[in-house]
UniProtKB/TrEMBL annotation:
PANTHER family: OS08G0249100 PROTEIN, PROTEIN KINASE FAMILY PROTEIN. GO terms for cellular component: cytoplasm. SUPFAM superfamilies: Protein kinase-like (PK-like). Residues 90-373 form the Protein kinase domain. It is an enzyme of class 2 (transferase). Interacts with ARAC5 and ARAC10. Belongs to the protein kinase superfamily. ATP binds at K118. This is non-specific serine/threonine protein kinase. Its main location: cytoplasm. It comes from Hibiscus trionum (Flower of an hour). GO terms for molecular function: ATP binding; GTPase binding; protein serine/threonine kinase activity. InterPro entries: Kinase-like_dom_sf, Prot_kinase_dom, Protein_kinase_ATP_BS, RBK1/2/STUNTED, Ser/Thr_kinase_AS. Keywords: ATP-binding, Cytoplasm, Kinase, Nucleotide-binding, Phosphoprotein, Serine/threonine-protein kinase, Transferase.
Amino acid sequence: MSFKSEEFESSHSKQGFRWRVLPQLFRTKSKKSLANLQSFGSFRFSLRSTSMRENVAVAPDFLADGDSFNHMSSRKVFALSELQIATKNFGTENLVGKGGYAEVYKGRLPNGKLVAIKRLTKGAADEIIGDFLSEIGIMVHVNHPNTAKLIGYGVEGGMHLVLDLSPNGSLASLLYGSKEKLTWGIRFKIALGTAQGLRYLHEGCKRRIIHRDIKAANILLTKDFDPQICDFGLAKWLPEQWTHHTVSKFEGTFGYLAPEYLMHGIVDEKTDVFAFGVLLLELVTGRRALDYSQQSLVLWAKPLLKKNDIRELIDPALGEDFSVRQVHLVLLAASMCIHQSPIRRPQMSQVIQLLNGNPDSLKDMKKCRVPFFKEAEIYKGEDDKEPNRFGKKTEETTVKNEDMYIRET
């Protein structure tokens, strides 16, 4: 599927000429050529029509704001020969990921540093450049421990983004493709770190960023299993005075798409919150957002959440080695994040407080109602570093419904 967003018209009478010379500007490696892009202002990139992509208006701030180019100049510009050497000429043995529009290769720089090189592959030249500018325009402004690190880029022989390579790959590869299952401690660490990364994008950046493609495959894991949000190809700036974007066709990943997005094309922070709720369910259950039979994890989990059937929800691979208190917190947060109504979903800052064991943070959320938990119990172990087990509750605190949430009416 593909879709277009609202139309944006260029204010430049010579846009056609500039558009034709844009690819040539990228073929040169001089900084002067990059600076020339400032004259392009805001204009339309018409992206692919046969996929889950949309027509994107490149943020005027990226093309016209000198600060953005300062960010760009601090990144290394790679020659094609450097990228070819690093990846052994983009050999298939170094191909670590492939999507509809890009390929990701593992590479090694001359200093020994391992990198991931994303090469945009599909579409006409102007479409590829549009994708490149859109993604790099976001990434140069992002700097947080829980977001992927952009090292540099290359524009010779195609559009390339060069990032830090995550030693442990993606969450999806470990959760679904590894023989060794992730421990509960690591899963909870990933949940909390990803929440912190999303809060940064929504509230901590100079400009609000909606990622729009939060999923297990887009959460990279460092050697210490710290999560890093990656792939900003679908990300959108959300101006301060705007409440949301409205788009007319769909893009993203099925299983993670919020109802208001599917029905009305509404995109805002709550779009990411819903996807994060699905991610939390994946961490608890070990199930995919959309399995091979096309069953939705959200639809499967909702009846179990309503019955508070923790045993059925927990990934069997965990056995009993998990913190009951943390599982309750994660499932409560997931229940709130996947609420049908976006206004009843929490902000990411509130999700973080809840995951940190502060349910009082929800008292001011008068409109946030969770229909899935009839009763929430938080077990306070003597030492949360050690997992509690079912049937071995230590000090038990039952939190009443009115303290944790307002019942759905």
